[in-house]
What does this fold into?
Amino acid sequence: MKNKNKKQSVYTRSAELVERVFSEAYYIGKASAAKGVVASYIPELAKADPTSFGLYMLDEGGGSLSFGETETRFSIQSICKVIILAAALKYRGFRGTFDHVMMEPSGDAFNSILKLDMRSNLPFNPMINAGAIQTVSLLTDVLSFDELTAFARELCHDEGIALDEAVYKSEFESGDRNRAIVYLLKSKGVLMADPDKTVDLYFKMCSLSVTARSLASLGLVISNGGVDPLSGGRLIESAHVRTIKSLMFTCGMYDFSGEFGVRVGIPAKSGVGGGLVCAAHGMGIGLYGPALDPFGNSIAAVQAMEHISEKLSLHVFDY
Ligand code: GLU
It folds into this structure.
């Protein structure tokens, strides 16, 4: 028997409603941006305008919505961890990746070293720095930075993705904590490549420049099971997408991942450059708002996504 109260599926929802909800979300996000603070531990990031906000949605039918600063370039930062994981799964396979990094939420800050030294030889998951650096060490001898950049361009439908030299320099000069992580991994005998080459490739990946629009394309490929709906080409194996989405859901929002899972309930990954990629049912959503909350997530992007998820019933556990 049909449940008459069941909410309308996102696939049948009217375009007017979707547009209204995204428009409201844009104004909610924009109004909350001023409550956050731009990242300053990488000096180059401190130059961002905290009031900036952009929201871009691409749906699997080719429709799109754009509000605010969706063409502004900013550094991908931690969102590169999704691309690094996708590449590791592609070139090393599931076991070849997860023999070297765990899949557990850490509950700690993205750059924490504490549990890595106390409880485990392997990093908790590929969405925190230690895990991403370890995952990069699986790729250092397999793929060049240019090849990884080409993969990022393909996933994001964005030929403009390139190394932001100023961010890279800033990252390199202020990256001692990440160097501590890579050398701790080496000291434990688990790092799979040269530490300096590994951390350098990680810095470069964090310094790729993207837009809210390119993140929406990435989100759409992931939400669509790894197939680019625009070209029909398969970019990620569907089994790998399941793994990527699971880790985005459980670990993608730093130590706010649990609360984001409850409140928003969409696989997502944020970066301290202010970006957020979301892989929702039938749509990819990319956001940019450099003012961050204390966890390192874009305050405007989180507020906007909470509204979108609630009004369009996009939580993966909504019924
Ligand atoms: N490049 C940054 C770091 O490793 C990435 C941080 C982030 O976006 O979480 O410190």
Remarks:
- The domain at 18-74+211-312 is CATH 3.40.710.10 (Beta-lactamase).
